Amino acid sequence: MEYYPLIIVLHIVFAGMWLTSFLLSPLFKSAIYSSKKKIGEKKFIHFYLIYSNLLGMVSSIGILLTGIVLVILNPGFGFFSMSANHWLATKQIIMLVILVIIGGFIVPTAKKLRLSIGADLENASQLSEESYKDLNKLFKLGLAINVLVLINFLLALTHNYLG
Predict the structure, then answer these.
(1) 3-class secondary structure per residue, 60-114
(2) Range of 66's domain?
């Protein structure tokens, strides 16, 4: 239990990292759409994919691992136990939904988009309409993930008031 406060701090830091995506995604979306069909467009998309991939991996794995450790270390917590801590079970279910969305939809769509923009980011060739559909899909899925993360964050902050 001596590491418990450190694990909590790390859990909060990873949640904060994930929430930065909620704040920065509209900026990326704006930059990408303002450069649509221009030379810098591929660079913005490439940077968005790198940023969201790196931040998503670090924060989601960090949240998942620290969350598991917190549940194991705290005898009052359990996995998916609605009778003991309904707020925690709800957070765990939401986390599973987030992981399914990431693994089942975001990763394949991002790979497809990455292939469509190609390795030559300086090339001014136009992206296909299919690439724009994939990009819009990523923005929508990212928003869904960010809303779920925000709900989980709010559940963590307010669980003492939920009864």
Answers:
(1) HHHHHHHHHHHHHHCCCCCCCCCCCCHHHHHHHHHHHHHHHHHHHHHHHHHHHHH
(2) 4-161
Our count of domains for the chain comes to: 1
Residues found in the chain: 163
Longest Cα–Cα distance in the chain: 58
User: CA 10 to CA 60: how far, in whole Å?
Assistant: 12
- Sign (positive or negative) of CA dihedral 144, 147, 151, 157: positive
What is the distance between the alpha carbons of residues 90 and 80, in angstroms, rounded to a whole number? 8
Q: Look up the pTM and report it.
A: 0.84
pLDDT averaged per 10 residues, the chain (length 163) = 88 90 87 80 86 88 93 85 82 94 93 80 70 91 92 87 66
